[in-house]
Amino acid sequence: MKVAMIRLRQLQALSYVLSSRTMTAASELFGVTQPAMSRLIMQLEEEVGCKLLKRDRGRVRLTEEGERFYRKAEQVLVAMRELNGFSETLRHDPKGEVRIVSIYGLVSNLIPTAIAAFSADHPKIRISIDILNRSKLEEVIHEGQFDVALATLPVKSPAALSIDSLGTLPAICILPKGHVLARNKVVDAQDLAQFPFVSARRETLLRQRVDETFERVGVTRQLQFEAHNTEIMRQLVAAGFGVSVIHPFVQRPANDAFICRPFTPSILMEYALFRKPPGESSNAADVMAKYIIAETRHLGIPISLRLGKRARDALKD
Question: How far apart are CA 228 and CA 11, in angstroms?
Fold first, then answer.
């Protein structure tokens, strides 16, 4: 016994023919050639097993069987339009919860505007934010216990994850207000040798990159202070405990308690957004990702750190 395999596109073609009354007009509205439109109707009639349309004075009308069939078909088409409308609502008004996991500075300094805008547009979505060290972040990403993850590359992660680059920036030097090096347009590694240095924790990528750079140029630092995250590092610098090299998206405080300067040799930091594979990522997570990517699309060196030609040449050396 043959089982009918009626397709939605065939029902839509029938609807267009009935509303247009001619194959020619229907094919133009449907965006296909007239032979293709006729073929869709013929295939539908083959599946149904009877003639659905007849010509009457140059117009196309339903046969008696066609009228009975179309009453049911119209219900399917209406249901599909309602379903499409509901899907559109889901895309533009997602609900649920988004769990963001991140290294410290990205959430606190780089994307608060994106999160605020998302929350204002989608107030029904709960947002949880966890600040994790690098090893814990990689563990959470591997176990899939997140919706959106923000990190400095490289990150050990499953190959199926969706990864969007947020940009690449050079690390910067921060100095206490009034520091003798503040007169420099660019601070060199050698310049920092004589001052107490505030470091990130040893397990962080920032610490590894900074240590490698100073070792490569043969500069020994006075490693006097070690802090858990960028916020504590800049607080220590602002309090006059030493100097440091940190992530570049740090926000300068209103009271100018510390000063930012470009650092050489350049230490490039690439930031990325991770999501679960397509089909596993929630709609709410995908919408949040769009807000963050839009916010960081023009990620670049802050105006206060943009360099003149002489300074740019120094960074290239």
Answer: 63
Which tokens sit at 193?
């040798």
* Tens-digit pLDDT string for the chain (317 aa): 455 688 888 888 888 888 888 888 888 888 899 999 889 989 988 888 899 898 877 788 888 998 899 888 888 888 888 777 656 655 555 568 899 999 877 777 778 888 899 999 888 899 999 988 888 889 999 888 999 999 988 888 888 899 998 888 899 999 999 999 999 999 999 999 999 999 998 888 899 999 999 999 999 999 989 998 888 898 999 999 999 999 887 655 555 678 999 999 999 988 899 999 888 888 889 999 999 988 877 554 443 333 344 433 443 44
138: CB partners within 8 A, 6+ apart: 155, 156, 157
Contact 172, 262 (CB under 8 A): yes
> Using CA atoms, how far apart are residues 247 and 280, in angstroms rounded to an integer?
32
User: Whole-model pTM?
Assistant: 0.61
Q: Are 230 and 200 in contact (CB under 8 A)?
A: yes
Contact 174, 260 (CB under 8 A): yes
